[in-house]
Write a structure and sequence with these properties.
heterodimer; A: 486 residues; alpha/beta; eight-stranded mixed sheet; 13 helices; 18 strands; 30% helix; globular; B: 348 residues; two-stranded antiparallel sheet; 11 strands; elongated; oxidoreductase activity, acting on paired donors, with incorporation or reduction of molecular oxygen, reduced flavin or flavoprotein as one donor, and incorporation of one atom of oxygen (chain B); LRR_dom_sf (chain B)
Chain lengths: 486, 348
């Protein structure tokens, strides 16, 4: 066996070169390679220092029951609920793979941090309601012994959505749905609006809906750190690396109607380390795609969308990164402490930030004006041309303001219907999605995490029925359109 | 039929156990059959029959038999028995012909008391056991104890804040709210009556019957453990004029977001000393347009008390806001420091 080992190692060392170099003769000892080989051979003999085991502490484990691609708030929320809903303590091994441990480009931490129940789909309202309850009791859900309680810095100031004449009927309809689900929203006429918030210019506003409870904004970084800390205490493994490959196996099956389908099952996830070519194949049973703005790329790696267009196999995941700016400005005569997050019918929105008359806000660009999502550079001209005029028209005090700073972040934008994708893929049977929330992912993350964990553990949704958000709708063309997108 | 069933009961368990035993022995030949067979061959020998007397000398066979009985648990319940005379067993006194059924299975180990029975059945009755032994019987880790205690504290607060639906249905929202406050240790003032506090005898239902239709005007819940859930009881008091939530440890920004329900009637509100309220929660008080007195002094979580005071005063123009002095938190400027420097004596 020793002789075989020696021959193997010799073979490995010399395989790149081929026999030709030896026939050449005089270039035998170039670069000291022969002495290195001699040292390696000597180390195999007993009594020398040859260790067949090398240090893998920087690599993720070799196998894990669940691999969650993406360590943002959605991925961590799925991990939390998996560990919380598992039948026996320690039954499920979860590995969270995050490419960037500084979260420099993650949508979670660059978000404005708002939470509202004013949506047009009842499922969205239910998701936000549960998430508000989660955030309210966050120190019971995410309690870790000996660690200080979390302070989310929640501002319960509410959202004020304004509607023009055309949008008033839709707004009334939406408010009815929201109230049915239990959200506390009130409708205000322009006169009531002027009385309550005298700094608003109600020209062009026909109706306003104001969220009274469970709406406001909070600090997303605090939520992320709280989840991370709790997950570490529950035994979830974190690893910094990039998912580069999925090893899967396919089986050809026939549906009840006689159609041929190819079902895929992912067996291994290749996680590549930062700044190196080293990768670790992680054997897994389930994969969760919570990669946010880059979910489309991960889905392509898994083989989603590789097929003739017009079939389920050829349906891609329609989530792509869209860049959105957020500007911070100072306005000494601006609205006071009572200002909610105001959203203009034109799409511009702003909210108060802190006590020093600073405000945050922006506007979603139209399809033609979409900036290039290749980088996170801020375009201040966009503020000058698109955001400021709209804000100044709505709040006259904003005519004199001074921009302090700005940043840009990605929306994991679902180009199909701007709502999230949850649940398993019909053909890649062990890949689950939790992505595509187009700007309202943070506020729905706790509830979505629970729904996906229920789907993974039980096979169906138990608390909130998110069947309108399954992947199949992209193939069947059933849009679950969300109209109130900021 | 009865005789047949009785006969079957006597025979069924034994025959099924035998079948299980043979199955187990077949499934694990190297461990059990060979070793057990070797042991029996060695101890009993080929000439004699194995019997109960050899049990002490064949520990492996004994263990295998016990394991088969544990594994193939046909009837986890002991057969009912009755005592023939009055018996005293440890702490229990059993009169004659009391029927006893001994649960053999581990069904009794569910729950925190059962665990100790599973680990050490006699141990819990022994006197003089230390706290550490008690804890090791019930918890697997120190952290588990702490999590349990933390959980108990949270549940205690939640229990205090439950809603009294029976009282509300029977006596109305005013009495339910008053009962809630009195139970927490606060004081309540009904219209045209004096302040009421819970006394040592407790709360008598006689008074409440008289007060069904009388609205509550003032509530003093200082120091009570009211939280978001418990606030439901207070928000039903639609004619409440004065509310004092001083030094309440669980009242936070989320609770303040609910106070808009009392906007029509509330004139006086005191939040002094609440450790969890910050300026973000105070921003929701703009709904209370009838408020005339607001006390926001001594709030440790407010980052800038002076500035907050100014902003709250601007937000509620008709309200008198007691709190920090506006100059609090301002630093002394450079021009005020120079007279001190000029006044210092020049050393000789």
């Amino acid at each position: 066996m020793l002789r075989r080992a020696v021959r193997l190692r010799l073979g490995q060392c010399l395989s790149g070169r081929g026999l030709g170099t030896y026939r050449g003769g005089s270039t035998l000892d170039c670069d000291g390679k022969v002495s290195k080989i001699k040292k390696k051979i000597q180390s195999i003999f007993p009594g020398r220092a040859w260790s067949p085991l090398y240090d893998t502490s920087h690599l993720p484990p070799e196998r894990s029951d669940v691999v969650i691609v993406g360590g943002g708030v959605l991925g961590l929320s799925v991990a939390y609920w998996l560990k919380r809903l598992e039948k026996q303590q320690g039954a499920i091994q979860v590995l969270v793979v995050e490419r960037d441990h500084t979260y420099a480009r993650a949508s979670t931490v660059l978000s404005v941090g708002g939470i509202r129940q004013q949506f047009s789909l009842p499922e969205n309202v239910q998701l936000s309601l549960f998430s508000a309850e989660f955030l309210r009791n966050i120190n019971e859900y995410l309690a870790v012994v000996d660690d200080p309680p979390l302070d989310l810095q929640f501002n319960p100031s509410g959202y004020l959505l304004l509607a023009s004449e055309e949008g008033a009927a839709i707004m009334e309809c939406n408010v009815k749905i929201q109230r049915q689900e239990g959200a506390k929203v009130c409708l205000m006429s322009p006169e009531q609006l002027q009385k309550k918030f005298p700094w608003i210019n109600t020209e062009g506003v026909a109706l306003a809906s104001y969220g009274l409870e469970n709406e406001g904004w909070f600090d997303p970084w605090c939520l992320l750190q709280g989840l991370r800390r709790k997950l570490q205490s529950m035994g979830v493994l974190f690893c910094q690396g990039e998912v580069t490959r999925f090893i899967s196996s396919s089986s050809h099956m026939e549906t009840a109607s006689g159609e041929q389908v190819t079902l895929k099952r992912i067996h291994e996830v290749h996680v590549k380390m930062d700044h190196s070519q080293e990768f670790q194949p992680v054997e897994c049973a389930l994969v969760v795609n919570a990669a946010g703005a880059w979910s489309g790329q991960i889905a392509e790696l898994a083989g989603v969308g590789t097929g003739p267009p017009g079939t389920m196999q050829g349906t891609k995941l329609p989530v792509e990164p869209r860049k959105r700016y957020v500007y911070l400005w100072h306005c000494p005569q601006g609205p006071g402490l009572e200002a909610p997050l105001v959203a203009d019918p034109s799409g511009a929105y702003f909210r108060r930030e802190g006590l020093g008359n600073n405000y945050l806000g922006s506007c979603s660009p139209t399809e033609e004006e979409e900036p290039d999502p290749g980088n996170l550079e801020v375009d201040y001209d966009f503020f000058q041309e698109k955001v400021w005029p709209r804000l100044a028209q709505r709040v006259p005090a904003f005519e004199t303001l001074k921009v302090r700073s700005a940043w840009a972040g990605y929306y994991d934008y679902n180009t199909f219907d701007q709502n999230g994708v949850v649940g398993p893929h019909p053909l890649v049977i062990n890949m689950y999605f939790a992505t595509g929330f187009s700007g309202h992912g943070l506020q729905q993350a706790p509830a979505v995490g629970r729904a996906v964990a229920e789907m993974m553990l039980e096979g169906h949704f138990q608390t909130i029925n998110l069947s309108p958000f399954l992947f199949g709708r992209f193939y069947f063309g059933e849009k679950a359109q969300e109209h109130c997108i900021l | 039929m009865d005789a047949f069933l009785t006969r079957m009961q006597q025979v069924e368990t034994t025959s099924t156990t035998l079948r299980y035993g043979l199955l187990v022995l077949l499934k694990y030949p190297p461990v059990t059959a060979e070793l057990t067979q070797q042991e029996i061959d060695r101890v009993v020998g080929p000439e004699r029959w194995p019997c109960q007397g050899y049990r002490a000398q064949t520990p492996h066979t004994d263990a295998v038999l016990h394991e088969i009985l544990r594994f193939a648990d046909i009837l986890p319940l002991g057969v009912p028995r009755a005592v023939t005379q009055d018996t005293q067993f440890s702490r229990y006194h059993m009169p004659k012909s009391l029927r006893l059924v001994a649960p053999v299975w581990n069904r009794g180990t569910s729950g925190i008391r059962g665990l100790s029975k599973a680990v050490d059945p006699e141990g819990s009755q022994r006197k003089g056991r230390t706290l550490l032994q008690f804890l090791t019987d019930h918890f697997y880790d120190v952290e588990a104890v702490r999590e349990y205690l933390l959980r108990k504290q949270v549940l205690k607060v939640q229990k205090k804040n439950r809603s009294f639906t029976y009282i509300e249905e029977r006596y109305g929202p005013y009495v339910a709210g008053a009962y809630f406050v009195l139970k927490q240790g606060g004081a309540v003032k009904f219209r045209d009556r004096e302040w009421m506090r819970a006394n040592e005898q407790g709360l008598s239902s006689l008074e409440f019957r008289k007060l069904q239709e009388v609205p509550v005007e003032a509530v003093d819940a200082s120091g009570c453990a009211i939280n978001y859930q418990g606030l439901d009881n207070l928000l039903a008091l639609k004619e409440l004029q004065s509310l004092s939530l001083q030094r309440c440890p669980h009242v936070d920004d989320w609770c303040l977001g609910r106070l808009y329900h009392l906007a029509d009637s509330l004139q006086e509100l005191s939040l002094a000393g609440c450790p969890r309220i910050s300026e973000r929660g105070l921003a929701c008080l703009h709904h209370l347009q009838n408020l005339r007195r607001l006390d926001i002094s001594d709030l440790p979580a407010v980052s800038n008390p002076g500035l907050t005071q100014i902003l709250v005063e601007e937000m509620l123009p008709h309200c008198e806001v007691l709190g920090a002095d506006w100059a609090q938190g301002l630093k002394v400027g450079p021009e005020e420091q120079s007279p001190d420097a000029a006044g210092s004596p020049i050393p000789a």
